[in-house]
Write a structure and sequence with these properties.
The protein is α/β, with parallel strands linked by helices. Helix content is about 45%, strand content about 15%. The chain has 12 helices and 8 strands. The radius of gyration is 18 Å and the shape is globular.
Length: about 290
Amino acid sequence: MPAQKVFPSILKRAYVDTTHGQIHYRYILPPAQQLARIHPILFLHKSASSSASYELLMQHYASQGYACYAPDMPGFGGSFDQSEAATAEIKEQGTAWYAAVFMEAFEALGLAGSGSTVRCHIIGHHSGAVLAIELAARYPEFVSSVCLVGPTVMSEEERAAMKETYFKPFNEPVRDGSHLLKTWEYLGNMGVGEDIALWQREALDHIRAWRGRTLIYGAVWAQDSQKLYKEVSCPILLMCAKDDVLWKYFGHVRGLREGVQAVEITGGNFELDRDVGGIVEAWSPFLVQCG
């Protein structure tokens, strides 16, 4: 009998329907010959990136036996843009709206919902970290652990200051194309580094998500993150780079719960691409410990 052909894991892209529109997601499953881990990993990106920012980490953890899923937030990447009705709901419900849309998508993928016994690890970056906390607080039976890269826990005054600085849609499309250069220069100032391929990818994602960025930011800065954080019962791992814009708030997060591991990594606001090794070094033993 000829040997069975072994196919390597391939990172794929697909869509799943929700009430509001289609969610685009990336996913990669462990090699067929490898024993899969019990808990899948969900990867939630920052504003205004997309699930593309997680490809390196997804490939690594699929090789370790984890099924990996990374959705694009509504208004980002390949996912739907919010209607006027959805925009009104976001202003009323805040980050809970995004969490509900994601849960609807996860149920459609068989990762959650009635009869499901699956629990998932979640990693969130910046606004994705905020949504990870929202999901963990609202759906504790679904979340096994959370890893927060650039966690955002701020006082009401600090949230107002961040909103004043970052809420304005700096790269709204204009006919002369000047928003394209503004986006390019913004990324340089935010620490994207010298990898031109990464710079180009992020520029395209940021240009696409100029409107979605303001919607999620408005929801993030309206969230009482301190209250939600204290409601989370699952294990939490914190990571942040010193040159991340959220580093100055890192101590706020560490002080809210005892026994939470906080790790310094590198890579500015683009840790997921620029410090894969640092993230893996800290996160892998944490995942094993969580089961």
